[in-house]
Amino acid sequence: MPLALLALAVVAFGIGTTEFATMGLLPQIAEGVGVSVPHAGNLVSAYALGVVVGAPVLTGAGARLPHKRLLLLLSGLFVLGNLASAFASDFGLLFAARFVSGLPHGALFGVGAVVASRLVAPDRAARAVSKMFLGLTIANIVGVPAGTALGQQFGWRAAYAAVAVIGLVALAALAAFVPHQPRGRQTGIRHELRAMGNRQVAIGLATAVVGFGGFFAVYSYLVPMLTNLTGLSDSSTTLVLALYGVGMTLGTLIAGPLTDRALRPTMYGGLALLAVALVVFYFTVHSTVPALLTITFIGVMGSLITTPIQMLLMAKAHDAPTMAAASNHSAFNLANAGGAWLGGLVISAGWGWASPALVGAALAVVGLGFAFAGGRMDRGGGHSGVRASSGAATAAEAERTAAVPARRD
Q1: Could you give the number of structural domains in the chain?
Q2: What is the pTM of this model?
Q3: Which pLDDT belongs to residue 319?
Q4: Distances in Å between the alpha carbon of 126 and those of 63, 101, 272, 329, 389?
Q5: Judging by beta carbons within 10 Å of its beta carbon (0-12, 13-18, 19+), is residue 381 exposed, middle or buried?
Q6: What is the DSSP letter of 34?
Q7: Is the dihedral of CA 213, 217, 222, 224 positive or negative?
Q8: What is the mean pLDDT for each group of 10 consecutive residues in the chain (409 residues)?
Q9: How far is 92 from 234, CA to CA, in rounded Å?
Q10: Of 161, 183, 205, which residue is a domain's last?
Q11: What is the pLDDT of residue 369?
Q12: Contact 66, 183 (CB under 8 A)
C-alpha cells in the first residue's frame, strides 16, 4: 500500500474515532458540562449536522484548489475543531466545537477518495478507495474503544485531545506522502454543481440515504437490543460493537476488488444480503451465538455497499467527482439520522426492541430498488460509466478509459 494511501487511512481513522467516541462518553460529558445525558446526546447531532453542511460547502469553496492543499486545510480544521472540543468550557461552546469538527468530515472523505483513486491504475481505483475506508472501520475496532477508555480514565477532554494529536499525525503524513494532483482544465463550484445535477448522481445519493439507513436502524439500537433481548451485560456490549467493527473491516477489504470487477452487482448483492441479514437478526437476536454471527454479517454487508456507491458517484460525476464524493458522506449521515428515527419510532409504537431490524430490512430493499433504477437508466443509454476512472481529467477521457457494455454493469 503506497504511503499516500496510508496517510489517507490515518485521516479516516481519526474521523471515525471522533465521530463515534462521543456516544461512549455521554455520561462523563454530561457531568462535565452540567447537562443531562439526553441533552448531551445533541452533541452527536451537532457533529452530524456539521458533516451534512460541510461536505458541499467546503468542497465547493475549495473547488479551485489543488487536492493536496485542500486536504491539508481540511485536516487543519479537523484538528482545530477537536482541540476546541477538548477545551470547551460549557455546553454551548462544546456544541459549536462539535459542529466545527464535523464540517471537514465529508469533504475530507470526498477529496481523499478522489486522490486515492488517482494514485493507482484505473482498474484498481476501488481497491485504493477501500483502503482509505479501512481507517474508518478500524477506528470502530481500536480507536473508539480506546478513546472511550481514555475518556473514562482521564476525563472526556483527553479523548478529544488524543483525536487532535491523530489529526496532527495525519496532517504531517499528508504533507509528506501525498503527491501534487493538479485540477483539470474545468474547475470551480459551478462545474461541480453541474455534475451534481446528473440524475445518476441523485439516484446514487438516494441509494445511500435509504439503503444505508437500514444499517443504522439497527446499529443505533444495538446495545439495548443486546441487553434486553440477547441477555448480554452492559460490559459485554463494547466487545460486541468491536465485533461489529471486525465485520465492517472484512466488508471493506472485499468491497474493493469486487467493485473493481463488477460495481453494480456488488452493490445489488450487498443491499440484498443486508436486507436478508436484518430479517434473520430479527429472529436470532434472542440467542447469543446466532445473534453475534448475524451481527458480524450485518457489519460485512453494511461496509460492502459503501465502496461501490462511492465509486458510482465519482464515475457518474465524470470530470467533477469531488463534490459528489463528498456529498456521499452527507448522505450517510442523513441515513444515520433517518434510520435511527425510524427505528426509534417503531420501538416507541410498542413493536418491540427487535422491530428496528425489520425496518432496516425494508429500507435496504427500497435502497436496492433505487440501485436497480439507476442500472436500468444505464442499460437504456447503451453503456455505463460506472467503471470510469475518477482520475480522468475530462469526461471524454473517462468515457474512453472506462465505458463497458451494459451486460457487464
Answers
A1: 2
A2: 0.79
A3: 65
A4: 23, 27, 21, 16, 9
A5: exposed
A6: T
A7: positive
A8: 87 89 81 83 84 87 86 95 94 94 91 89 89 88 84 90 95 92 63 72 92 87 85 77 86 93 95 97 94 94 91 81 81 84 87 93 96 85 43 36 37
A9: 30
A10: 183
A11: 96
A12: yes
Per the rule left: phi > 0, alpha: psi between -120 and 50, beta: everything else, 198 is: beta
**Contact present, 378 and 384 (Cβ < 8 Å):** yes
CA distance 100 to 51: 9
Counting Cα atoms < 13 Å in the Cβ hemisphere of 347 gives: 19
- Is residue 12 a contact partner of residue 139, using CB atoms and an 8 Å limit? yes
Q: Are strands 404-405 and 383-384 parallel, antiparallel or unpaired?
A: antiparallel
CB-based burial label for 182 (10 Å; 0-12, 13-18, 19+): exposed
Query: Do 200 and 161 belong to one domain?
Result: no
d(CA 181, CA 341) in angstroms, rounded, equals 41
Q: Report the Cα 191 to chain-centroid distance in Å.
A: 25
Side-chain half-sphere of 58: how many Cα atoms within 13 Å?
A: 33
C-alpha span between 183 and 186 (Å, rounded): 8
CA dihedral sign of residues 148, 153, 155, 160: negative
What is the DSSP track for 68-93?
Answer: HHHHHHHHHHHHHHHHHHHH--SHHH
Which residue type, as a one-letter code, is found at position 284?
Answer: T
Q: Of all residues in the chain, what percent are helix, strand and coil, respectively (each to 5)?
A: 85, 0, 15
**CA distances from residue 184 to 58, 226, 318, 398 in whole angstroms, order as listed:** 19, 50, 11, 13
- Give the domain range for residue 376: 188-409
Instruction: Specify whether 258 is located in the same domain as 335.
Output: yes
Largest Cα–Cα separation, the chain: 61
Q: Which residues contact 81 (CB under 8 A, 6 or more apart)?
A: 97, 98, 100, 101, 102, 103, 104
Q: Are residues 172 and 274 in the same domain?
A: no
How many residues does this entry show for the chain?
409
Measured from the Cβ of residue 37, the count of other Cβ atoms closer than 10 Å reads 12
Q: What is the pLDDT of residue 402?
A: 37
The answer to whether the Cα torsion of 403, 404, 407, 409 is positive or negative is negative
Give me the amino acid identity at 393: A
Distance CA 241, CA 148 (A): 12
